[in-house]
UniProtKB/TrEMBL annotation, chain A:
Membership in a protein family: Belongs to the binding-protein-dependent transport system permease family.
Protein name according to UniProt: ABC transporter permease subunit
Top-level taxon of the source organism: Bacteria
Transmembrane segments: 30-48, 94-115, 136-161, 181-203, 224-244, 284-305
UniProt xrefs under InterPro entries: MetI-like, MetI-like_sf, UgpAE/MalFG_permease
Compartmental location: Cell membrane
Entries under CDD domains matching the protein: TM_PBP2 (cd06261)
Keyword Cytoplasm annotated: no
Residue ranges of domain ABC transmembrane type-1 in the record: 90-305
Any Pfam family: BPD_transp_1
Keyword vocabulary terms for this entry: Cell membrane, Membrane, Transmembrane, Transmembrane helix, Transport
PANTHER family: BLL4140 PROTEIN
TrEMBL record, chain B:
Protein's name in the database: Carbohydrate ABC transporter permease
GO CC annotations on file: plasma membrane
Keyword Chloroplast applies: no
CDD domains in UniProt: TM_PBP2
Membrane-related topology note: Multi-pass membrane protein
Location relative to the cell: Cell membrane
Transmembrane feature ranges: 12-35, 80-101, 113-133, 145-165, 186-206, 261-280
Domain of life assignment: Bacteria
Organism: Cohnella rhizosphaerae
Homology family: Belongs to the binding-protein-dependent transport system permease family.
Keyword Transcription regulation tagged: no
A Gene Ontology BP annotation from the UniProt entry: transmembrane transport
Amino acid sequence: MLKGSAQTADVSSGYAHKPSFGTKLWRYRWLYVFMVPGILYYLIYHYVPMFGLVVAFQDYNLMKGVTGSPWVGWDNFKAVFESPDFPQLMKNTVLLSLYRLVFGMLPDLLLALMLNEIRVRWFKKTIQTLTYGPHFLSWIIVYGIMFSFFAPGSGLVTTFFRDMGWGDIDALTNSGLFRPMLVMTDIWKSTGYGAIIYLAALANINHEQYEAAAIDGANRWSQLWYVTLPGVRDVFMLLVILRLGGILDAGFEQVYIFLNVRVYDVGDILDTWIFRRGIEEMNYSVPAAVGVFKSVIGFVLVLGANKLAKRFGGSGIW
Amino acid sequence: MPYIFKKSIPDRIVDVLIIVILSVFGLATLFPLYYVAVVSITPYTEVLRNGGFLLIPNTFTWDAYKAIFNSGVVPKALNVTIFVTLAGTALNLIVTTLLAYPLSKKYLPGRNAVLMGIVFTMLFSGGLIPTFLTVKATGLMNTLWALIIPGMVSTFNLLVMKTYFESLPSEIEEASKVDGCSDVGTLLRIVLPLSMPIMATLGLFYGVNHWNAYFGGIMYLNDRDLYPLQVVLRNMIITPSVSQELSVPQSQLSALPPESIKMATVVVAIVPIIAVYPFLQKYFIKGMLLGAVKG
């Protein structure tokens, strides 16, 4: 096979000779060159850290590095699982994730269903534009807003409670209010954006299904139950699978920013603990072991949930 | 609204109820933003007279904004954030495009292996500590590159762009090849001009991420001069002493409630985002839905 002819040959033109592997590589050389920076990025900042997980099996020392630090087998994991903090951390993490699963997904779906009922286009558009705005604000900004409402002594809600004679609520440092505050701000920030995906699924429902249901005498609620909800079921299941995979994540960014010493008992999750011990106290091995634990559980959960979704007739993620 | 039914009285009540709930939700979204803006322009005299902040102040002042822009700390942080957002987004788009384009070619030998390797990173990661150690080992500590390079490609955005490229008609590219265009020329002259909507969408996604980025700042930077806006903002919100955080003498800020200065900084962080996103709305909805399509 001649190199010259291979270069001008088009893939779909049904060229008489099958080009050899080497010729193909040469023909697509620019496409491979394009990929170099991206592949390097994935190798260095995703795959090297995966092998960096060996730190969890070492008594890692920054001076000696991965190659020089002594191996300690499962000792770090033992230290984690036997630590008195661990059950509390797990409980906080899983509980918070379940809160977010329920109070994060249902409002999204509910908003989409309500918007779907609106016939007046400008109203629907206005509400949508307003409600997905906060998605683009950072958690720091949201915390700043919370501060303006709940700061001791000067917050809008705080002074209102004081003026009404209801006493101090101390919402930012109150263990009992910590989880509700996280859930509430999460609803404020992400509901509008979360509704987009359901609205798209709703728009894809064939109108004839509604006509057929109407002929069969289905009223509004029956149409909702038998046509609309089945139309969003697949999307809903898909999001549940993804969320289950992240059950040990519990929203690190938000929690870290809202967290303070006085709410550690309910607010300290695996990630904030890893961050404090690892990055702030520069003690890498035990937090890395928690990281391994998290990654493995997350991986198993996604695979498991996907399999389960398929068994129940859904399509799964892949 | 898709349903077909005769409107009975209960149905009408439901309709009204839905409109009321949606309106309340819309207002609840707006109100905190309005209140933050109000606090930022309320002078101390108002607070003292009323024993707190009012929803509609009788007088207002821009002094809080003057104070933060004269402080040196906030303008510096703003410069850092603007630099990181612009340079970071440009690099993000370039590297993502260069990777997504070949991956959209189903005939490319080795494409599936690369794609699987990339998707796997969505399911399994090394986690915080090994990533931190890698960034350290690659010499990025205490440079602004630490805020850009470790997040060079977002896998979600990459898959969105790949899906978009796959949706372009292959005939156009074939025609350009017949005309003697190389892959470089085809990408630059044919594909890119057709891809402006997706560039706008992903540019918004990447740009907002850079603007809002916080953890990179506290993990990888020690030098306070390099702190991005979000890090400065967080430090200001939790500090009882705003003047120390802004490194200006307390006497300069005595006419302002500390809350006003904090909220003025919050407003500075909000405004650029509010200003940009409504214009890109139609793009990012499309982008998000492309991402939802299975790759």
